[in-house]
Specification:
Layout (H helix, E strand, L loop, with lengths): L5 H23 L6 E3 L29 E9 L9 E18 L6 H7 L10 E13 L22 H14 L4 E6 L7 H13 L5 E6 L9 H10 L1 H14 L4 E7 L2 H15 L5 H8 L1 E7 L5 H9 L8 E6 L4 H10 L17 H9 L4 E5 L14 H4 L1 H13 L9 E2 L6 E2 L4 H11 L12
Parallel strand pairs: 2-6, 5-6, 5-7, 7-8, 8-9, 9-10, 10-12
Antiparallel strand pairs: 1-4, 2-3, 3-4, 11-12
Helix pairs in contact: 1-10, 5-7, 6-7
Length: 453
C-alpha cells in the first residue's frame, strides 16, 4: 500500500496499531470473574499410574484454608466493579490468602479428585475464589515519596511479613515437600486470574509445599499493553523484596518461580536486581541465602537483548536452574515483536539456527547446565488457539513443567531431546512414555493412589 501523503500514512499506521493491539487483547484477555475452568490434566498423570492428589481433602490441613497471595494493586471499594482489588497500581505490597473451591460445591473431595484427573471431562470443573483475606503489607515496600500523613480514617495496614512467613512455615510443616512455589501472571488480567491459575497448578502438584500467587497491577483494558509492560518492569522491586523476605523468614528448602508472558519481565528484573545487590559474592553464597531453585519462563515477552544484559549482570548466579519455554507458533509474541521490532525471548529461533550469532550459540552451549531452552512447538496441544497459553492447554507442556518442579528433573531426565540445529530441547513423539520410563528408571517415588504430600 502506498499513502498519498504523510497524514494518510500516519492515520493508516495508527489504525493498524489499534487493530494489532485489539488482536493482542483477544489473545491474552481473561474474563474478570472469580472462577476459571480447570486446565486439562497433565498427561503424566494418565491412566491412574501417577496420582499426585492426596486421598483426604488437603484444605482441611492447610492452616489458612486456601492459597497465599501478594499484590501491589489498590484495594477495591464497595462501588468498584473489580473483585477484591482494583486494576490500578498501589503504593505497597499487600499479603493475604484466598479461599479456593475446586469444582462445584456439591462435589465431595473423592469426586473432585477423580474428575479433575479425567482427560475428557463431560462436565465443567470450575476453580473458584470464595473470599479473600488481607493480613497487611510489606512495610519495606512503602516508597520514600509516599505521603506519610495519611488521614486517620485510612491508616496504613500493619506489617504482615511475619504472619505471612508463619503461615508458610505452618504449611511446610504439614508437607513432605519443604519448597515454595510462586507464580506471576501475564498482561491484561485482573487480580483473581493469578490466584486461580496458581490454585490449579498447586492442585496438580498435589498441594506440595506452599504456593504464592503474585498479582501485579496489570490492566484488563484495550490498548493497555504499553502501560502493563512499564508496570511489569517498574514493580519488580516489590517482587524482589518479597523473595528476600520469604528466603529470610521461612524454612523453605527452595523457592521456585514460574513467570508467564509479560510477567516474565517482572521476574527477570527482580532476579537481575538480586544479582546486582549480591555482586562480589560467590554463586554458592548467594544461593545459600536466597535458595531460589527452578525459575521457569513461559511465553516470555522480553527483548532478547535485554535478557542478555540480565545474564551479563549475573542473573544465573541467583537461581539453581533457569528453564525458558519457546515456540515458533506463539502468535501473541509475534504481535509483540511487530510492535517493538525486537525478537522476544519466548520465540523460537528461525529454522536452521542462522539467526543465532556464533558467539551467542557458544554461550548457550556453555550455560547448558544452568539454563535450558525448551521448544514446545511439537508438544501435544501447544499450538491450539493463538499458541500462547500452552502451559495450561498442552498436557505435555504442563507435564514437563510440573515434573521439573516435582522432581527437579533435567531436560534429558524428562525425556526431551536436543535439536540437531539449535541448542534447544524438543518434545519427541513418544515423550510421555519416555518421561514415564525415566521416572521408573531413576527409581523415583512416583505417588500412587495412597499418596499424601
Amino acid at each position: 500500500m502506498r499513502c498519498s501523503d504523510s497524514v494518510d500514512c500516519q492515520r493508516f499506521l495508527r489504525y493498524a496499531l489499534v487493530v494489532l493491539l485489539s488482536q493482542l487483547v483477544v489473545a491474552c484477555a481473561q474474563k474478570p470473574v472469580g472462577q476459571l475452568e480447570l486446565m486439562p490434566p497433565p498427561d503424566v498423570y494418565g491412566d491412574g499410574l501417577f496420582n499426585p492428589l492426596p486421598k483426604s481433602n488437603p484444605f482441611l490441613d492447610i492452616p489458612y484454608d486456601g492459597i497465599l497471595y501478594a499484590t501491589d494493586r489498590q484495594p477495591a471499594g464497595p462501588d468498584d466493579d473489580e473483585l477484591f482489588y482494583r486494576n490500578e497500581r498501589g503504593q505497597v505490597l499487600r499479603l493475604g490468602y484466598a479461599e479456593i473451591q475446586m469444582g462445584e460445591g456439591d462435589l465431595t473431595w473423592e469426586q473432585a479428585r477423580e474428575v479433575s484427573l479425567l482427560k475428557a471431562r463431560t462436565e465443567e470443573f470450575p476453580v473458584k475464589i470464595r473470599d479473600v483475606t488481607e493480613w497487611g503489607i510489606v512495610t519495606e515496600t512503602i516508597p520514600f515519596w509516599a505521603d506519610a500523613d495519611l488521614p486517620e480514617e485510612a491508616p496504613m495496614p500493619p506489617d504482615a511479613v511475619d504472619q505471612f512467613a508463619a503461615a508458610i512455615n505452618a504449611q511446610l510443616a504439614n508437607s513432605a515437600s519443604k519448597d515454595i512455589y510462586l507464580y506471576t501472571h501475564g498482561y491484561l488480567v485482573t487480580f483473581v486470574n493469578p490466584l486461580l491459575v496458581s490454585a490449579e497448578l498447586w492442585h496438580f502438584l498435589g498441594y506440595r509445599g506452599a504456593f504464592i500467587a503474585y498479582a501485579w497491577p496489570s490492566t484488563p483494558h484495550r490498548l493497555a499493553y504499553i502501560k502493563d509492560s512499564d508496570t511489569a518492569v517498574g514493580y519488580a522491586r516489590n517482587l524482589r523484596l518479597l523473595i528476600e523476605g520469604v528466603a529470610e523468614k521461612t524454612n523453605a528448602e527452595e523457592i521456585h518461580i514460574i513467570g508467564y508472558s509479560n510477567g516474565t519481565r517482572l521476574v527477570v528484573q527482580a532476579l537481575e536486581q538480586l544479582a546486582l545487590i549480591n555482586q562480589g559474592r560467590t554463586k554458592e553464597e548467594i544461593q545459600q541465602d536466597l535458595r531460589i531453585g527452578n525459575v521457569i519462563l513461559v511465553g516470555s515477552d522480553i527483548d532478547r537483548a535485554a535478557f542478555g544484559n540480565a545474564l551479563a549482570d549475573g542473573l544465573l548466579n541467583v537461581c539453581r536452574h533457569l528453564s525458558i519455554y519457546v515456540s515458533s507458533e506463539d502468535k501473541a509474541l509475534g504481535i509483540s515483536r511487530f510492535l517493538t521490532n525486537k525478537r522476544r525471548l519466548g520465540e523460537l529461533w528461525t529454522e536452521g539456527g542462522d539467526e543465532i550469532h556464533p558467539q551467542a550459540r557458544q554461550a548457550l552451549e556453555k550455560l547448558r547446565g544452568q539454563m535450558s531452552f525448551i521448544n514446545v512447538t511439537e508438544a501435544e496441544g501447544a499450538t491450539s488457539g493463538n499458541g500462547h497459553h500452552y502451559f495450561r492447554q498442552s498436557p505435555w507442556a504442563s507435564s514437563d513443567i510440573l515434573m521439573t518442579l516435582y522432581y527437579g528433573l533435567t531436560p534429558e531426565e524428562r525425556g526431551l531431546v536436543r535439536q540437531t540445529d539449535l541448542p534447544v530441547y524438543t518434545f519427541p513423539p513418544d515423550y510421555i512414555s519416555r518421561l514415564w520410563g525415566n521416572i521408573q528408571r531413576l527409581n523415583l517415588d512416583s505417588p500412587g493412589a495412597d499418596y499424601n504430600p
